[in-house]
Amino acid sequence: MIRDITIGQYYQTDSTVHRLDPRVKLLGTLLFIVALFLYKNPAGYALGLVFLLTVIKLSHVPLKFITKGLKGIMIVLVFTVLINLFLTPGTAVVSFWKLTITYEGIGVALTMLFRLTMLIMGSSIVTLTTTPNNLTDGLEKGLGFLKIFRVPVGDVAMMMSIALRFIPILMEETDRIMKAQLARGADFESGNIVKKAKALVPVLVPLFVSAFRRAGDLAMAMEARCYRGGDGRTKMKPLIYKKRDAMAYIILFSFVVISVWIGRWSVISGFFNSIYSSFIPK
Amino acid sequence: MPLILDHVSQVYNADTETPVKALDDVSLVLPEGQFIGIIGHTGSGKSTLVQHLNGLMLPTSGNVYYNGKDIADKDFDKKDLRKHVGLVFQYPEHQLFETDVFADVCFGPKNMGLSKKEAELAAFDALRKVDFPTELYYASVFELSGGQKRRAAIAGVLAMKPDFLVLDEPTAGLDPVGRYEILDMVSALHKESGMTIILVSHSMEDVARYVERVIVMDRGKVAYDDTPREVFTHEKELEGMGLGIPESTRIARMLKGKGIDVDPDVLTVGEAADSIFAAVTGRNK
Amino acid sequence: MDIVKAEDLVYEYIRRDEEGNPTDVTTALDHVDIDVRQGEFVGILGHNGSGKSTFAKHLNAILYPTEGTVYVGGMNTKDDDKLWDVRSCAGMVFQNPDNQIIGQVVEEDVGFGPENLGVPTKEIWERVEESLRAVGMLEYRKKSPNKLSGGQKQRVSIAGVLAMHPKCIVLDEPTAMLDPSGRKEVVRAIRGLNDVEKMTVILITHYMDEVVHADRIFVMDKGKVVMQGTPREVFADVPTLEKLRLDVPGPARIAWELKKKGLPLPDGILTAEELVKEIEKCR
Description:
The complex is a heterotrimer of chains A (282), B (285) and C (283). With 282 residues, chain A is mostly helical. Helices cover 70% and strands 3% of the residues of chain A. The two termini of chain A are 46 Å apart. Chain B folds into two domains: 3-228, Rossmann fold, CATH 3.40.50; 246-285, no CATH class. In chain B, strand 4 and strand 5 form a beta hairpin. Chain B starts with a strand and ends with a helix. Chain C has one domain (2-231): P-loop containing nucleotide triphosphate hydrolases (Rossmann fold), CATH 3.40.50.300. Chain C has helices at residues 52-59, 83-89, 106-116, 121-134, 150-162, 180-196, 231-235, 238-243, 250-261, 272-282, and strands spanning 2-16, 22-37, 41-45, 67-72, 75-76, 90-93, 168-172, 200-205, 216-221, 224-229. In chain C, a hairpin with a 2-residue loop joins strand 4 (67-72) and strand 5 (75-76). Chain B binds chain C through residues 41-43, 145-147, 172-179, 202-203, 205, 242, 244, 246-248, 250-251, 254-255, 258, 260, 269-270, 272-273, 276-277, 280-281, 283-284, and chain C through 47-49, 149-150, 176-177, 179-182, 206, 245-247, 249-251, 253-254, 257-258, 261, 263, 272-273, 275-276, 279-280, 282-283.
């Protein structure tokens, strides 16, 4: 199941979206999410969907790969839909036992489903098309203004990037320690939750010991290579906006403005509302 | 009971575009009582192979039999297999987790369902077998030297009283003396209790000095399976696998090539010196 | 000129109890004098716990002397103002290949040191390229370190140090966790640095065959320098080396055994080729 979550994974290929500055992608995602919550009628969502599909097409990431990411949070989706479906007050469609599905419930549930799906697909595009390092750089530079408030942005970015580098190493190590304890007769599968949690102690203790040892070694290696915090460092790959980034910003802002404007247009909203309410029996 | 591998293959990432054949049609019979060395270059499949011996990995095709039973069968008791086939991983000291050495060595036997007392007796016996200093039985793992930690970890597997002891690069990262101490100890286990030892190594020198049978792995296949002397006759092929032969053997063969009548099959420094001395002085006379 | 000069160096580890009172003092370095000249290849040998790694950490101002002085590039390592100059003068490669690579891409890792030194972007790229070329890893520049073998990772670490343009490079058991072929490729890369780039190299190891080609060797035991000289001088004394728990190279040991039996072989045979040549003369 963990493997199904594509959020946070990088899909290696070359595309316009891959080449964009990470700051463009981060801000773009943020704007896209905001727009999703401002839409008031299906026309807005339709525009949003067209935008999303265009970006996916441009990114050269197979659609299958992105939808696979939805599987991981399927439970959340289903839960949200069910809650809205049954708990929204309004005109009843069907009613059984203590549960009632209302017309309003169907509307809200569908809207939520659409919103969440698009939100997840939209944000997974950033991580799918940006290397973790690039993403960290983008965050570091994009949030650079926080330095005024004495937030050590550079150090935090360095921590993130190191964490990302060590995740695969620690995963491998976990696997190795688990196998070593299995070879000594450990049992991670049987018993209730308490027993299972207890069985993990022989894995977690060595894992922590090793993580601390690695952290110590790494700190020493970094100091030996003259790391002394983010100040005064130069960058091997500094982030510099290119022409295409400017273009992307223009397209992005125009899309948001237009889609929100149309998505909230009272004439269109009214039109959809009249269709919608004609389904509800008076 | 012998361990039998019958046409065992193991494929990683089978469903991707780049499947890796870690084991490719490996058939082996590992009877009890032998001292076997498995050598191969990093990535030759030797570490994958040993994980099949105690059921930590199951073959993607082929079968592994222990005691006449297929270890992949649903009703096969893997825990019982792991009691009989003890596997010591590379850098085994990284698995130590208890507050003191003795408690850690008790972990295995306790998992095997032994009572507290039986487990402690087994742990005591195992620590004695690895020559662990008595005054450190209740020391914290953090107080031990590298070699002592390694011994404690090996004792943790020995305490389950296995019939087979499989050691994956038990000397990695130790200094020369530490290396020979561990190997001598393993050799003593074989001689004194008749335990089957399977030693995974990439050091020809270690293998030549101790084992009676060498299995050479290359790209997932068994390249050779014979006595050290026999295997080392394939000098060229071994070099092609990134392995080479023991230096003493190599020197003897260089001398032989120069027309000096040295035994080309010597394995250790002592044997080489004896044979060279005999050959040279014999001529001088 | 001496790049590294340790004078009467003493280092004591002090263990303290919970109140901070000293309970135990271990002398890790006991009046050590070691000097390394520009362009030299110096080997420091010793078994685990002989003090050789503690010595290495002094060259990079990770540890400071309890007594005595260490000069690196003419600077006293105790001088706080010179800390970063000392560290960029004596670059350091450590034992565990996984725990010293910071970047997620090979070239970014090599660029880490120069970034810290505030080197301009364009020059970082030049340094990264030349350093990776010097260790033969240029074709792997876009790869993830996690996909490399141990030997390759260590070569990347060496490149990472080279890119800081140090005056000397200190390697603290860089091969201890590698397999034989990884060891060979790392040792070859180190020798190349010394031969071709004229880099001063201090190689700390317990494998004697790695320092057969060194200019000078120091053997350490219990925090003291117990033997020093050229490889030939040091390796001639096989019994002492074995007493010090060191692994004498095969040819040297065979030569020693033969000499003991009465064969008239000269002192200081190091390689198989030399041994064969000398034995031929005995016929």
